[in-house]
């Protein structure tokens, strides 16, 4: 969980690629359509399942809880979404004892270096004659 543009999706896509995971982006209309019935979309999957923009499917935490509690479930879930208070509360209540939350923040100047900070954050620093 974390603010927009902090790298949640980028990191999750890399993890998914490294592990050959099933990846769903619920901002994608095709993926969203599959989640009209979340149980049907998820119950037969194995390995790592990544679901991005999870806040777009109300009630999905209950489905994930049911699947996580089944002894024969061969899937583990990486869920990404906004840090909205309702979403965090829904996750912590529905998945209590089953999930850990990772809070991501934006870039820190010590991480990217002063010379690249504006480039990576989308900020434009103007000097003389419009120089960056």
Describe this structure in words.
The chain has one domain (8-101). It contains 7 helices and 3 strands; from the N terminus they run H-E-H-H-E-H-E-H-H-H. 39% of the residues lie in helices and 11% in strands. It has 132 residues and is an alpha/beta fold.
Supply the number of helical segments: 7
Instruction: Give the CA-CA distance, first to last residue.
Output: 32 Å
Number of domains: 1
Tell me the quaternary state: single chain
Stretches where pLDDT is under 50 for at least 5 consecutive residues are 126-132
Structural class call reads alpha/beta
A few lines on this structure:
This protein is of the alpha/beta class and 132 residues long. It is 39% helix and 11% strand. The longest helix is centred in the first third of the chain and has 12 residues, at 8-19.
Keyphrases for this structure?
39% helix; 132 residues; alpha/beta; three-stranded parallel β-sheet
Write the layout of secondary structure elements.
Elements: H1 8-19, E1 22-25, H2 29-34, H3 38-42, E2 47-52, H4 60-69, E3 75-79, H5 85-94, H6 109-112, H7 117-121
Parallel strand pairs: 1-2, 2-3
